[in-house]
């Protein structure tokens, strides 16, 4: 990952500040994402939207249409080859918006981020992703077992968000 990120910074991205964002999911949620590509894509999309929102808020003068530039990598295993779904995203530290004077030109607005901004962005993305994954798992569970909606939600949310017992 280090070599790939260095290549992006040195040869692909413009000469702008780049930050690596990593989203690691709780063990209980990884089970639901293991074979569900749509949910993996949805979680990554939500995470990048949250990062974009944080960057836009911290970039002075950025327009609501300003967008981030990122390259994302989905990792399915940890360093010990254990099942460990997580995302690495190389993101330019700011947003791009259309330039008023030209149809093809863009203007870069650098974001000024604090450690609190980074933690807030990661926490919001993780919480949103958790609720999405739990609701996705809920629909599959409901079809299989045919139980009542309230009982299923309690059981499934308890499994997703309860304390991790080292599994």
Entry keywords:
three-stranded antiparallel sheet; globular; two-stranded antiparallel ribbon; alpha+beta; disordered C terminus; 167 residues; 5 strands
Write the H/E string, N to C: HEHHEEEEHH
Helix share bin: 40-55%
Q: How would a crystallographer describe the biggest sheet?
A: 3 strands, antiparallel
The fraction of residues in strands falls at: 15-25%
How many domains in all?
1
Report the strand count.
5
Number of continuous helical runs: 5
Report the C-alpha radius of gyration, rounded.
Answer: 19 Å
What does the secondary structure layout of this molecule look like, with pairings?
Layout lengths: L1 H11 L5 E7 L2 H7 L3 H22 L11 E8 L5 E10 L1 E5 L7 E5 L4 H31 L3 H13 L6
Antiparallel strand pairs: 1-3, 2-3, 4-5
Helix pairs in contact: 3-4, 4-5
Summed up:
With 167 residues, this protein is an alpha+beta fold. It has helices spanning 2-12, 27-33, 37-58, 115-145, 149-161; strands spanning 18-24, 70-77, 83-92, 94-98, 106-110.
Please tell me about this protein's structure:
The chain has 167 residues and is of the alpha+beta class. The chain has one domain (2-161). It is 50% helix and 21% strand. The protein has helices at residues 2-12, 27-33, 37-58, 115-145, 149-161, and strands at 18-24, 70-77, 83-92, 94-98, 106-110. The strands form 2 sheets. Strands 1-3-2 form a 3-stranded antiparallel β-sheet, sandwiched between helices. Helix 3 (37-58) packs antiparallel against helix 4 and helix 4 (115-145) crosses helix 5 (149-161). The longest helix is centred in the C-terminal third of the chain and has 31 residues, at 115-145. The model is unreliable at 128-147 and 161-167 (pLDDT under 50).
């Amino acid at each position: 990952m280090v070599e790939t990120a260095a290549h992006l910074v040195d040869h692909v991205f413009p000469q702008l500040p780049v930050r690596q964002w990593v989203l690691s999911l709780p063990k209980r949620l990884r089970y639901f994402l293991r074979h569900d590509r749509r949910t993996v894509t949805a979680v990554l999309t939500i995470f990048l939207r949250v990062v974009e929102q944080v960057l836009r808020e911290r970039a002075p003068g950025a327009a609501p249409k300003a967008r981030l530039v990122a390259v994302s990598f989905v990792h399915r295993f940890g360093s010990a080859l254990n099942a460990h779904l997580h995302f690495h995203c190389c993101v330019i530290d700011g947003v791009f918006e259309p330039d008023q004077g030209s149809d093809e030109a863009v203007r870069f607005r650098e974001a000024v981020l604090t450690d609190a901004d980074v933690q807030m962005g990661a926490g919001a993305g993780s919480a949103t992703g958790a609720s999405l994954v739990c609701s996705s798992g809920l629909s599959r569970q409901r079809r299989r077992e045919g139980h009542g909606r309230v009982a299923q939600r309690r059981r499934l949310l308890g499994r997703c968000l309860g304390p991790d017992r080292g599994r």
